[in-house]
Design a protein that fits this description.
Strand content: under 5%
Structural class: mainly alpha
Number of helices: 9
Distance between the termini: 30 Å
Radius of gyration: 18 Å
Largest sheet: none
Order of helices and strands: HHHHHHHHH
Low-confidence stretches: none
Number of strands: 0
Helix content: over 70%
Mean pLDDT: 94
Shape: elongated
Length: 180
């Protein structure tokens, strides 16, 4: 609640308190959750190195506990922080692992977001053919699943792709879909 309302200092206080309590109780899943929350608080405040510190702790614990889906969720968060720091290769590697989990669990909704994120990282890497492949696959899945949020995100990313590849008319078409 405090994170959504941008009461970051209060959210951080509760996150640290939760981390301390869970550690004292030897609740490793709770410790991982608290680390992930603290990572997210740092991420939304653009403190990406600190975010990665907490995300990595959460990821390692969740992985050790065999919490595959939660590990993938944390890995997705790590990828976003890596991308912000300009470490696109690490972001790409993390997202590829997340996509493997999404597909192995038949999590099509999660895969759409991951495909969009992979497309965005490929755009940042200026690997335009690869970006287009991810974005086209995400567009089809988002449309099939009627996932309006990911469709809009996809249109925004495809507009960026079209602009970067010298196709301003196509970029405008995607931007129009994005704002519709």
């Amino acid at each position: 609640v405090h994170i959504r309302q941008r009461h970051d200092s209060v959210a951080a206080y509760f996150g640290r308190s939760s981390l301390s309590s869970c550690a004292r109780l030897k609740d490793r899943e709770g410790v991982a959750f608290a680390n992930n929350v603290l990572g997210y608080i740092h991420y939304v405040n653009y403190r990406n190195d600190s975010a990665l510190y907490y995300f990595e702790k959460a990821y390692q614990t969740r992985k050790e506990l065999g919490l595959v889906v939660l590990s993938a969720n944390t890995l997705f968060n790590m990828a976003r922080a890596y991308a912000r720091l300009g470490n696109y290769e690490k972001a790409n590697q993390a997202l590829q692992q997340v996509l493997e989990v999404d597909r192995s669990r038949k999590n099509r909704g999660g895969a759409v977001g991951t495909l969009n994120a992979l497309g965005e990282v490929a755009l940042l890497m200026k690997d335009y053919p690869r970006a287009k492949n991810f974005l086209k696959e995400a567009e089809v899945e988002a449309r099939t699943l009627l996932n309006r949020n990911e469709q809009r995100n996809n249109y925004r990313l495809q507009a960026q792709w079209a602009r970067a590849t010298g196709q301003p008319d196509l970029a405008n078409e995607y931007y129009e879909k994005y704002i519709a």
